[in-house]
Amino acid sequence: MARLILILLTLTGLLAAGTAAAVPTEDSIDFYVESYGALTPEDDPRIAIAYRVFERVRAAADQSRHRTPRLVVIGGDTNAWAIALPSGHIVLSRKAVTLCFKQADENLARTRLAFVLGHELAHLAHDDYWHEEVERFLADSPDTQRIAHFLDQNFEVREKELAADDKGYIYAAMAGYPVHLLLERNDTKTDFFTFWMQQTQARISASHPFPEDRAALLRERLRMLQEKVAFFDMGARLAHFGRCSDAIYFLREFQQVFPGPAVLNDLGFCALQQARQAMPPRQAHFYWLPFLLDLDTRMPRTRAGLPEDEYRFLKHFPLNGTATGYLRDAADYLKRATESAPDYLPARINLATVQLYLGRPHQARAVLAEALRLAPDDWQAQMLDALALYEQSDADIDLWSAAVKRLETRADMPPAWRYNLARLLDIRPRNSDADQHWNQLATLVPRLPRFIREQVCRHQRVQPQPQCLTTPPAGRNVPLPWSWPIPQAGGTLVTPSLRARLFAGWESIPFDWFRAKLYGFIHRAPHHTAEVMEMDQYLQLQVTRTGLPSSEQAVARACPRPLHHRRIFQGTVVTCNNWAVLLRDGHPREAWWISR
């Protein structure tokens, strides 16, 4: 952790009362294991938690090419709290684990552990072993005042420690821990840094503002992240409305400061959408495949069988260079997302879809095995696994029957599931079985995506195709139950004077991406009750979190036609024309408007 913490971690016994000898300088893990003994997860439930936290943070952290990080928890009477060794081991004492749980619930304790371990992982990633220099400097004089003086004079040490604080904070946050808790004052009126110093380094001069400085710097980091998250939010919303060519710039802006799994997933989502746009429609929509955004990112034919030139597998479609490039970009983003978060589902769903488009069903199933381990009941993962199983068929093995059997076992079929089952049934001469599914989908035509709607109308036998494709007349317009931050925003040129008037008292975050010729502002109302994205001097997207109805049914009444539903990670987005509403647990949380 920070410089004061690491001194005690590396100079075992130097600051202990009555200790006159310096800690041995061995950097071997064997020294610590032989001296203090290694503890396993079976020895203590809290030790087990520390190991689990380490695995999550390690997955999120930068990695050195020279070593693989490994955690060893030691017992014994030692003042070595946490230390990174050149071998790649991180030594964590039982006392440090106990300290992280002191005056803390399990959530806060896990977050403390994540930061401590993240700090040490940062040292490993950047080959920081400055404690050896400190040992040599202080070997003959373990005087606390001299330690303080040495650190005050050593700018490089200070910079490395603050950098490790910063990286450790980011790693812990990327791993999903609520790092803001480290900066909050607890019942003892101290933040985590002051608390740690009081517990481990009480003899260092209390007048030196080390912990206050550290907390202040990380508060500034948190403030900056909270500002930059506006770019992630806007990027994800633009992606939902199909504007990925703009969305990627917002997402990349956020990725620069917080390359977590969600932004990598949404960048992969956008690259996948761009790849599909570069494909012929019948290839892009051969199956109805799932795509998960994380916000917290379709000519008649005979029914006697497929014509000889009709593709029977998605993997048999040729890929043009543009689509291939986007798919490879998507795979890269999504693989990085899965590697940075071993328990992150959306990127695995999206990566499996990419592998199917690339004609790699075996790789898709390997990814889906991980997804189903995380979420055994996730219907999208189950559906993809059945499709990938069928795509594994070759001249020597026919897996069509096995795939169909899997899909037929589900009673409550979501529309995408039923569509893909009908697709497979159509590939073999079982038209009557396929008909029942196409006909059931025909009852949902107004709610289906455009190309899916065309395919359903071509195959169904309920009504003539032209009638099926006819868009039902829209109902009467009902006033929205909420108000937009800037009513009648479309088409108005935002001059500097108008901007100042419209957004007086708001926070305005500028952006200017020269190569893309995109510039503008993200305006945020006080308390983040509303947001407006201005681009090229026009209002492009608005968000409100106030005045929303209490249910999806009330939202539906405001739309003159059936709402379109999109599943996202931990929620749903319902869309009507140029507005959408984000639902969490069935309740409206945000309303979005986009300029068309």
From TrEMBL:
Cofactor needs: Zn(2+)
Short name of any one Pfam family annotated for the protein: TPR_19
GO biological process, any: proteolysis involved in protein catabolic process
Residue span, Peptidase M48 domain: 53-131
A cellular-component GO term for this protein: membrane
Keywords annotated in UniProt: Hydrolase, Metal-binding, Metalloprotease, Protease, Signal, Zinc
A GO molecular function held by the record: metal ion binding
Signal sequence bounds: 1-22
PANTHER family, per the entry: METALLOENDOPEPTIDASE OMA1, METALLOENDOPEPTIDASE OMA1, MITOCHONDRIAL
Name the record gives this protein: Peptidase M48 domain-containing protein
